[in-house]
Design goal:
CATH architecture of the largest domain: Sandwich
Number of helices: 0
Largest sheet: 6 strands, mixed
Structural class: mainly beta
Number of strands: 13
CATH class of the largest domain: Mainly Beta
Length: 152
């Protein structure tokens, strides 16, 4: 069976046998070949808030036939921002993590991954809200109320 990285990449079942000149028939030979035309899926997870430094995004990718090849990381700044593929390198495999350094300063960063499988099928670029959003560099406001203390 043809394989790519150990996984089938075509879909065909063929059976054949031969008969010699004396009418002896061999056992039927069957070959199964699979063709992967399905788009892989992926998920991304990120913390809800990061005060400073980098944001770590974990990801998983799956493909039920040829297998996951890897993912690209996409991000947008702000909930209504424009999706951009990050400058971080494509990561191969079924899971991993990206270390993202926010360049647009404090605010909300949303993330999504775009998977590709071993057969070359690729998921569409992200739209909408994304898979995970992180509030970056925004600290909570603390209010202090001072009350007078009366001692008797």
């Amino acid at each position: 069976m043809p394989r790519w990285h150990g996984r089938p990449v075509f879909c065909l079942v063929a059976s054949d046998y031969s008969v010699d000149g004396q009418g002896n028939r061999e056992i039927t030979q069957t070959q199964t070949i699979s063709l992967d035309m399905t788009v892989p899926t992926s998920t991304a997870n990120a913390p809800t808030a990061v005060a400073d430094g980098v944001i770590t995004i974990t990801w998983t990718a799956t493909d039920n036939l040829s297998g996951s090849d890897g993912v690209w990381l996409w991000f947008k700044f702000g909930l209504t921002g424009i999706w951009q593929r990050s400058s971080l390198s494509y990561q191969s495999g079924d899971s991993g993590l990206f270390t993202f350094a926010p360049a647009d300063g404090p605010g909300t960063y949303c993330f999504a991954t775009q998977a590709r499988d071993v057969a070359g099928n690729g998921a569409a670029p992200p739209t909408g809200a994304g898979m995970a959003c992180t509030n970056y560099g925004e600290t909570a406001t603390h209010f202090f109320i001072y009350l007078p203390v009366i001692l008797k």
